[in-house]
Amino acid sequence: DAGVIQSPRHEVTEMGQEVTLRCKPISGHDYLFWYRQTMMRGLELLIYFNNNVPIDDSGMPEDRFSAKMPNASFSTLKIQPSEPRDSAVYFCASSLSGINIQYFGAGTRLSVL
Amino acid sequence: AQSVTQPDIHITVSEGASLELRCNYSYGATPYLFWYVQSPGQGLQLLLKYFSGDTLVQGIKGFEAEFKRSQSSFNLRKPSVHWSDAAEYFCAVGARAGTASKLTFGTGTRLQVTL
Q1: Are the beta carbons of A48 and B103 separated by less than 8 Å?
Q2: Which helix (H) or strand (E) holds A109?
Q3: Across all residues in chain A, what is the average pLDDT?
Q4: What's the rounded Cα separation, in Å, for the pair B42 and B80?
Q5: Selected residue of A44, A55, A100 to mutate for chain B interface (largest B Cβ count, 10 A)
Q6: Which residue does chain A place closest to B37, by CA atoms?
Q7: Of A34, A71, B64, B98, which has the maximum CB count within 10 A?
Q8: Mapping DSSP to helix (H, G, I), strand (E, B) and coil, where does residue B78 land?
Q9: What is the separation of C-alpha A18 from the centre of its chain, rounded to a whole number of angstroms?
Q10: Residue A76: exposed, middle, or buried by beta-carbon count in 10 A (0-12, 13-18, 19+)?
Q11: How far apart are the first and last CA of chain B?
Q12: Residues near A39 by Cβ (< 8 Å), separated by ≥ 6?
């Protein structure tokens, strides 16, 4: 398997623009997690899905952030409008029910100018 | 609420020396415990995990960790470090979330290896 695939790897945008990050989980995995990594706050869980349904979005920082999972092989994390403080590395991870091991993608490094 | 403390932000060891990275956790029940490694510009790779049973667990790349319930610790060890082990190491505790684990990560320990 190719592992968890995230795109783009790098994104540079200007404040106020909409940003969409994409994730393809490992085939057959039924859990998908979105994390944000910053120097100040470390790795934070933003939201996770089970069978395409959002289960816990308590880590989403504010209404500017939204996440969707329209099918089992694709998820998006959208920031609208983006702000400089959103600059971070965003990771997607997936796991298989009952196995309890999360596999991470390579991340998207977002820079908001 | 669960939490993880990695007290060492940065550690430097010589190649061939032994290594121990500390991890303390707080969790109300029997935890799931993990160590992940992150190389620069890369995602997180699982080194090893503890779910139950033998408290000394073996992982990839020659790493091992020992779960000590009385000390709420899950320290990572390697008897002889290689230059390629230079990376950032994260300890995580997992809370059961349905049939998955919701992970809480420590702040990480950056390992530097001198030749």
Answers
A1: no
A2: strand A108-112
A3: 94
A4: 24
A5: A100
A6: A104
A7: A34
A8: strand
A9: 15
A10: middle
A11: 41
A12: none
Where do we find the tokens 């500390």?
B22
Q: Which of B16, B28, B8 is nearest to B75 (CA)?
A: B8
Roughly how many angstroms between the first and final C-alpha of chain A, as a whole number?
36
Q: Which residue has the tokens 């415990």?
A: B33
How many CB atoms are located within 10 Å of the residue B68 CB?
Answer: 11
What distance in Å separates residue B82's CA from the closest CA in chain A? 23
Q: Tell me how far CA of residue A10 lies from CA of A48, A58, B44, B72, in angstroms.
A: 22, 26, 17, 38
pLDDT digits (tens, 9 = 90+) for A39-87: 888 899 999 999 999 999 999 988 999 999 999 999 999 999 999 999 9
The whole-number average pLDDT for the span B102-106 is: 90
pLDDT digits (tens, 9 = 90+) for B56-87: 999 999 999 999 999 999 999 999 999 999 99
Residue type (1 letter), A13: T
Interface test with B, best of A47, A57, A102, A109 (most B CBs within 10 A): A102
The answer to whether the beta carbons of residues B96 and B87 sit under 8 Å apart is no
Q: Does residue A21 sit at the B interface (CB-CB below 8 Å)?
A: no
The whole-angstrom separation of Cα A41 and Cα B79 is: 31
